[in-house]
Amino acid sequence: MLIRAPGVYRPQADTHLLARAYSEARLPPHSRVVDVCTGTGVLAIEAARYARSVTAVDISRAALASAWLNCRLHRVDVELVYGDFRKALRGRTFDVMVSNPPYVPCPNSGPPRGAARSWDAGPDGRSVIDSLCELAPDMLSDTGTLLLVQSALCGVDTTLALLCAAGFKAAAVARASIPFGPVLRRRAAWLTDTGRIQPGQCDEELVIIRADRTRQ
Question: Which domain holds residue 181?
Answer without folding.
Answer: 13-213
